[in-house]
């Protein structure tokens, strides 16, 4: 996404929003802080209240209030407008044939030694992605996602002695299928979600960190390291 937008433009939009937030905070901090404190207090009460119904009311009231307050901030309004402007520019430029840009990239790739670019699982902001439907040559996976599901099937490839999967994702589930003969080491963290490892499932929890080492049945077997970090979503690892 935004492949035709320069990095400097993205940085300009980001830091301009930060500057607007700082200016608004110093100009209207006296009126903004009580509102943030009020809704923050609602979230705190909702987290501490044991009665589920009352806890949910306080919790969601606090977050909805913070969301509505955020919409009124100059920085958030600027980011929303900038997002749609950049999206329109991206759609407009994508409709044209970027001959010069393609030739420049091909020339750079051809001249650089030890340079290789391959995309097994992309850094998409949204959408469902799956790798491994057909046999493929394994390369370590390191992706950042936004919204959607990520699926990695490692049973249709030959894993090296040590293989790595790293997924940092926003909203959505991550599913990994691993061969039976492979040792697995998992490091998983999420703000809210469920964990299902090899048929055993945990209930959804808030702010959990999971570490798992499979029994080393064969020391000479390949080891697959799975590192996942989700804002909200489920992790499922199964053998095939």
Observed structural traits:
alpha/beta, single chain, six-stranded mixed sheet, 40% helix
Describe the structure.
Helix content is 40%, strand content 28%. The chain contains 4 helices and 11 strands, in the order ααααβββββββββββ. It has helices at residues 7-48, 52-71, 74-94, 99-111; strands at residues 129-131, 141-144, 150-153, 162-171, 174-178, 183-193, 195-197, 200-201, 205-213, 223-232, 235-239. The strands form 2 sheets. The protein has a 6-stranded mixed β-sheet with strand order 1-3-5-11-7-8, with no helix packed on it. A hairpin with a 2-residue loop joins strand 7 and strand 8 (200-201). It is flat and about 65 Å long. 12% of the residues are buried.
SSE pattern: HHHHEEEEEEEEEEE
- Report the uncertain regions: 97-109
**E-strand count:** 11
Give the overall form: flat
Profile the largest sheet. 6 strands, mixed
Q: Measure the end-to-end span.
A: 33 Å
In the sheet with the most strands, the strands line up as: 1-3-5-11-7-8
Number of helices: 4
Please estimate the helix content.
40-55%
Strand content: 25-35%
- The class by helix and strand makeup works out as alpha/beta
Radius of gyration: 23 Å
Global mean pLDDT: 78
